[in-house]
């Protein structure tokens, strides 16, 4: 308890706990001696605190100071509504029954969207975009209500004059805001309700009037409250004047020179009556500005504030507060840094840690925490608004068995339950696209229970069946895929669950959509979905949204439900229950207020993170807000500066930042730059380099020799495998790929929802031509057959639209070429026909796309290509021998019912030819003006020679299957990762064995 006394009992009793003393511990250290003499005196005390998190922090401080059990005081929350902190139950019973109830915030959000649609029509947008704008309108309304700005103030001559001089979009936004607000006010009047900030202001005023007339018999202390709304400031003034009441502010700098205090600006107390409450030159980014604003609205001079003469358990040296005061001087006053003596620029116990990237920063912070825990009873806290950084640190600490909870919580979409519902909504929004569908089916909560292993096995089979281009939209195409994978029964159960979500119109009641989603999610997961903390938060959100949507009558397109739910869930944080390491805390900025530890690490100190980007109000222009007396966007920078100033009061502090983030280089926080500038020539003594060095050593692996170029040497028995007509090309071009596919039996699979690959397009094109030939090659029938095949293959509509013009033109060219060939006596005798032969006791096999018989009885071998065919030089060098091998098999009688010798070797390509038309024929035969290829009469002998060479070297020989034997040759990349290509390809040719 402060030892100073006031002679005037009605004078305001306001105290400040300096940053270096540790607010919560210093507060409790002053309260216990005062009230612990009587066993229940402390229990009669009422503490007004700024947030629910502060209640926990102060409770922990009481536990640390108690020594033995004690009855704790009553604690009520009276924080700033804009910071997602709600009013505690303290003020409701004080005869406030005549104050109307507060309107439901969620219902208001949905009704504002309805009114915005009425005001702007189609220009307002729809679905998620409309609801986002409505949410912004509600947030702006709350800001104005907290500042006690009535709608009539927005229509004053000053505001109208400002709006008239602004850009057109600001005028339109302001007009829309006013009209939507008036609609909502009329609805409130009919329902007899008021907005929550309005009710909070009335409760504050009601308590202030009652306590001023009849002060409570027991002590009331407002501690750590820095919200500067006018109604709260009036209540704090009354509390400070009560006989047993006083106000304790955090980190108010009483040593700041008067001229510097004046340089902060008017802060809500303009010199002239007509001046705006906030001047253009106000230093709103200063950490003391919001405290000056609060004192001005309380009508208390800084000279009336007394220091709190108790310190906490983790107090820093007193000179730390003087250094912090100098650190955050406003622009003109900061010129005094030049003349500051070294002892006033000292930040003993403060270290600066710069890392290369966020992962290294998290690793170094984890090392600092691990090192701090080696000292018994030492407490350490990480404070960062960067939730990604906090999650990384928590993950790194787990390697040492340290469980650290991020008390700021995780956004609901990042939890298991929230992610499942979003996946289900995404399946609806994207018409059962493969990626969200498979993610939903393999989600940890889906199919939980004894049947989970079987469930996952079925889901993986469906995953394989859906690989490749996206099938047709809806459940029908998936049913066909499931049937192919022999999953009919299992898929039927899933389809029964999902079907109600796919039988909806374009405008469904939001309430019904939520109900259907919840029912489907519970059918997939059972009651385990709602069991954890995330499930309970999700259940509460759904019930809140359903109730509000039913009352508001909101209609929504099912395709928008995913985006709407994502926005709503992002505003919900799931905080962990009590638990984790007792001496490690991970805080966000709100959770860190009033907390204290022996070592505090401030992480993520870069611009845009700490401080965050000052986002302007999307509806009302800054000039209008300034004229109305609403703090601007930069006001939040001042709050984050105050958070850092409070953290700097710890005995040991590490300020940490990375040089870049995931996207590129970043700028260190302006606060870090101030620290470095003030330290000057003392900077080197404050650099934390050891933790960074240790963090890098954790990831440093022993030096290993470069991976050699793979040259597998299977046994003679393993080598004797069948050779396909396309496999020979791989064997000669890249023996390792042949080894991986033919000997190891490895196959690559397409990704889910993959772009249509050349192989997939080729299979479709071959099937189209096969169906047309089997149908008797009807004139003008190829196009209709192609459409039927695309439908049968469930080709996605977008892919069909993009590919069809090229495919259709090429098919028309093919149709004309084939009909012309028929007129010249050429006849198709085989389509998509399999054949094989034995050559040197090795089976050579393959499929002929088409074989024609000419009038003279010779054969023509045709291969369809959707892209460019191999060049004549590639065929000449023996790396594209498919046509020749097909001809050899036909010559050997390997195709049933076909006899003869081929003398035509044709590639029919669907690509663009030299004449610009889609589709052409090319023969890799050296004749006429061609400069590459194999002479027609030598085509079969040369093919056999290359085949014998390959058999001698690899299949029947002992040469290694060397990876990328011909690196300059274009090749498939299916096995590049398996051969670890990137590890040795750059050094190819630099070693003797490679050169050999």
> Mind summarizing the main beta sheet?
6 strands, parallel
- The total count of strands amounts to 21
Radius of gyration: 38 Å
Q: What spatial order of strands do you see in the largest sheet?
A: 3-2-4-5-1-6
**Which overall shape is indicated by the principal axes computed on the Cα atoms?**
elongated
In percent, how helical is the residue content?
40-55%
Alpha plus pi helix count:
38
Structural class: alpha/beta
Quaternary state of the chains: single chain
Strand content: 5-15%
The stretches of 5 or more residues where confidence is low (pLDDT under 50) are 1-7, 81-89, 990-996
Distance between the termini: 87 Å
Mean pLDDT score: 87
Write the layout of secondary structure elements.
Elements: E1 14-17, H1 23-35, H2 41-44, E2 46-49, H3 52-66, E3 74-77, H4 105-120, H5 127-146, H6 157-164, H7 168-191, H8 196-213, E4 220-223, H9 230-241, E5 245-250, H10 258-263, H11 289-298, E6 306-307, H12 319-327, E7 350-355, H13 358-372, E8 380-383, H14 387-397, E9 410-411, H15 416-429, H16 434-441, H17 452-465, H18 475-484, H19 488-498, E10 508-509, H20 510-525, H21 533-552, E11 555-556, H22 561-570, E12 573-574, E13 584-587, H23 589-592, E14 599-602, H24 622-628, H25 635-647, E15 652-658, H26 670-679, H27 690-699, H28 716-719, E16 723-724, H29 727-733, H30 735-743, H31 758-774, H32 782-792, H33 797-823, E17 827-839, E18 842-853, E19 859-865, H34 872-876, H35 882-891, E20 902-912, E21 918-922, H36 939-955, H37 981-984, H38 992-995
Parallel strand pairs: 1-5, 1-6, 2-3, 2-4, 4-5, 7-15, 8-13, 8-14, 14-15, 16-18, 19-20
Antiparallel strand pairs: 9-12, 10-11, 17-18, 18-19, 20-21
Helix pairs in contact: 1-3, 4-5, 4-7, 4-21, 5-8, 5-22, 6-24, 8-9, 9-11, 13-14, 13-27, 15-16, 15-20, 15-22, 18-19, 20-21, 29-30, 31-32, 32-33, 35-36
